[in-house]
Amino acid sequence: xxxxxxxxxxxxxxxxxxxxxxxxxxxxxxxxxxxxxxxxxxxxxxxxxxxxxxxxxxxxxxxxxxxxxxxxxxxxxxxxxxxxxxxxxxxxxxxxxxxxxxxxxxxxxxxxxxxxxxxxxxxxxxxxxxxxxxxxxxxxxxxxxxxxxxxxxxxxxxxxxxxxxxxxxxxxxxx
Length: 175
Known about the structure:
Helix content is 28%, strand content 26%. By secondary structure, the chain is α+β, with helices and mostly antiparallel strands.
């Protein structure tokens, strides 16, 4: 693989830390085409994490979804401890610009695309020894901590169990 091919492939790496970790959500967003039917995905993710960020529920009356910000922005008095914060998510290859545009639309104006350093994880949620940090894009919350419930973390597993079905209904009702 040439250096150019590798560079092009790296441009398409995204770190997902919220609802897009659910294969059905990702698949529905990127293959919209006017049809809102959820179907199985082929997104081939790698379990991973970013250091120095914190993920919290967005204060929204209807939807349960997270926002991720630098912990130094959320907790400025504890900025010396930012290296202790970690957000677990999925590193995914997004195969086309049209998929990326659909992701941008899904995330909306409240998020901005940013480059983060991603570490790969094993099944025990430990960094895979000997792997290099990977640069990937992610969607960072841009509205500030005042719109996040910073007193509690957002947990994917809890969302999947208690809010996924509601999310599907609300998402389908608000294209």
